[in-house]
């Protein structure tokens, strides 16, 4: 069955504002963070004896692609709901596109599935959100503290680690096919994609 809709993929460093920018498009938004593996999954990568949640191997890319494929072909799918403070999926929820010709799949690992979705004919565009590193650090820390994702000391240490790693994260995402861009440029390009007669998939 040929896809009835396409998706744009929005990657970027943790805390860069991907969810906010995705919502600003006015399109249905699929949160790819809900596809993390459960904390007791034996395949989870480890670093210094701790689970490395920053590694793409901590994320279930195969299931994410299958859900995106169902959405593109049928306009609906059941998607997981992940509780980060519990490190596990706690339930599922229905996700429907209604008559939208496009939806946005956003998450730190979105770029990991760009090529597979391109091969399947599901890709409308792929972007990596670029912001000043200091702004990303503060946004991420404020979000994680407000949501009580982990203890404050853990979040601060994690934030410093991610601040240092941010350039490498963006290099990986652009290397996987995502275009580095500011929020305004992403919104402009996505708006162009869901107008009638938008350019062919890249």
Automatic annotation (TrEMBL):
Q: Gene3D superfamilies this protein is in? A: P-loop containing nucleotide triphosphate hydrolases
A GO molecular-function descriptor: ATP binding
Superkingdom, according to UniProt? Bacteria
Q: Does the keyword Transcription apply?
A: no
Q: InterPro entries from the xrefs?
A: P-loop_NTPase (IPR027417), PRK/URK (IPR006083)
Query: What name appears for this protein in its UniProt entry?
Result: ATP-binding protein
User: Where does the Phosphoribulokinase/uridine kinase domain lie?
Assistant: 29-147
What organism does the UniProt record list as the source? Micromonospora craniellae
Entry keyword set = ATP-binding, Nucleotide-binding
